[in-house]
Amino acid sequence: MKHFLVLYILIILGIIPAQSQELTAEKIVSSSFLKFTNGKIPDSYGLKNEFLELKKIPAEKIVVPPVLALLDSMIQTLPDSERVAIQANDKMAMERYMTTIAQMKRMFRYYTFIKRSDHQYVSIHIQDNSFGKVDSSKVISPTYNNNFSNPLEFIYQLNAGLFKMNLVGKTTENNTNYWLVQVQQDEKWVDVYFDVDTKLIHKIVVPEIEVDPIFEKGPKLQKTSYIFSNYKKSNGLLLPESLEMLSTAEYAFTDFLNLTWLYLDKPIPDAIFKPVTPPTLDEIYQFKQLDEHITHLEKISNSINSRMLLVEKEGNKLSILGGISNNSDFNKELKAAVLGRFPNHTISEIYSLSPLSGYSSLS
After folding, report:
1. Exposure letters 24-49 (e unless 16+ CB within 10 A, then b)
2. Cα–Cα distance, 10 to 335 (Å, whole number)
3. Which DSSP category does 284 fall into?
4. Which of 172, 174, 227, 306 pairs as cysteine with 299 (C-beta 3.0–4.6 A)?
5. pLDDT single digits (tens) 71-85
6. Which phi and psi (to 5°) does residue 64 adopt?
């Protein structure tokens, strides 16, 4: 009776958790899965990640490489006027850099499409470039490559027992209580924070070990956090619509993204799961006759088209004038297209606007 009384007092004081003997990582994951899906996850769906905003990470959260720490310490020894000028220039450079990075990120959209019953997983990257064109790349895989930005698929894999898990315990951040569960992925352990009240995934923290490339000191621990918020009901599921990606690496930023869930209530078009047919040489290289001996050639690219002139000379010789790629593989492709248009000619001269090291592939 005396031992029971001591144990009861410890539990009341919070020194020993009352649920410590029954609560496990698997039970926390199972509760979260039910909250996400109501017990039924869709066989197929899509997810669109779209960049919204970029912010600088607070200095206290950044892991500063030794070489930059050395430079900072040297700057502190300079006269006040020089130090202030350097810091002002650094601030202006960082603002310009952030503006450039944000402009680039706004051009990208990432799609993930999943059809679990057929073991089909598709990643599509779309870029709107400054020329009004759209660049697209598609990767089709029989297995899902978890990039941690899809909490629905992540909780499904956890609930299916695909990873080893350990319950670390309860932690508090910003006056909110979380269950901290460590999940083993490959050779590293990922921290997953489950909100004690809502049971939903609040944050996934992925550790990265790096060695300084100059001083070769390390290992240096950096972390990337995926923070989910703005959960809303959609077709029977409770899903986040906002994602904050935060890295502690130097010169990293906090990315704010919008999550749009697709095809939750209707089938995904079959065309999405079909491979992209590579363009033919005729589609890439477009010829236009300007006069009897001069032909304009335009190479259609994902971003910037290249143009050149082909000049026919005596003896079935061809001269190429324009921007030739400094890439042997591209030049072999160009040669095949040109000689396909002029089968009885040989390339005799190349006049390029830039230095070349791979021009021999045209000979």
Report:
1. ebeebbbbbbebbbeeebbebbbbbb
2. 81
3. H
4. 306
5. 667 767 777 776 777
6. -85, 125
- Joined together, the tokens standing for residue 291 give 């006069």
Return the number of other C-beta atoms located less than 10 Å from residue 158's C-beta: 22
Alpha helices in 194-319 (DSSP H): 281-284
Question: Which three-class secondary structure string do you get for 148-179?
Answer: CCCHHHHHHHHHCCCCCEEEEEEEEECCEEEE
* Claim: this prediction has a pTM higher than 0.70: no
At 249, the pLDDT band (50, 70, 90 cuts) reads: low
Contact 257, 49 (CB under 8 A): yes
Two tokens, residue 43: 């066989």
What is residue 22's three-state secondary structure?
A: coil
**Residue 257 pLDDT > 60:** yes
Q: Say yes or no to pLDDT of 131 above 50.
A: no
Q: What is the DSSP string of 98-117?
A: HHHHHHHHTTEEEEEEEEGG
Taking only the tens place, the pLDDT of each residue in 20-69 is 458 999 999 999 999 999 988 888 999 999 888 877 666 555 555 555 56
293 Cβ contact partners less than 8 Å away, ≥ 6 residues apart? 311, 312, 313
Kindly give, in sequence order, each residue whose CB lies less than 8 Å from that of residue 294, ignoring residues fewer than 6 positions away: 309, 310, 311, 312
Give the pLDDT confidence score for residue 21 in this predicted structure: 54
Cβ count within 10 A of residue 333: 17
